[in-house]
Amino acid sequence: MKHLSKLGIVTVVSAALLASGCASVDLDQYTNTQKGAVLGTIGGAVLGAAVAGKGNRNKGAVIGAIGGGLAGAGVGAYMDKQAQDFEKQLAPQIQSGAIELKKNADHSLTVTMTSATAFDTNSSSLKQAFLPTLATIGSIVKRYGKTTLDIEGHTDASGNDKINLPLSEQRAAAVQSQLASLGVQPERMSAAGYGASRPRGDNKTEAGKQLNRRVEIQIVPVVQ
Fold this sequence. Notes:
alpha+beta
């Protein structure tokens, strides 16, 4: 199998998919180059099933949707360029504190929006004034498609989990829904709410509470 041509691999995988009704096909026996040939040839949803190894179906679907991941030194350069685009196109919003951009040691990026700019108190509806900012975020992440977006909702410690947890989930879902409406691939995104369990600031102070009321988008490179 190691010496199969690109056409041969595609033929084998396609036949297996047809025979199995698009069930998972284990490609671990192929080299990365050979897998790449399949990634470039088979369509997204079908490919997601094809490359999904045991316990790895979600990553397989993502790789299928984006047409292959990043490799080697290219990961850092790719994410640095994306960060530069954020800094350039969203400079006023960053300077005003409407959003925050953080570059992480693992090459991922964190874009943080506060409840003061994105949501009214106790509401999960995005403010109309924030939609242009979110549209810019959407246009950037669409151009840098070899990433996943983990959207996380957070609250301060006021109230209780019966209120805070659903609110954080609804806010994360609202951001995910808006980005999807802007054309960001659903396969790339996930949304989760954490209530008050992951504070950034001291919940005993108003300044700390403001830091804790937020939605974060973790933009993570998809690596081969």
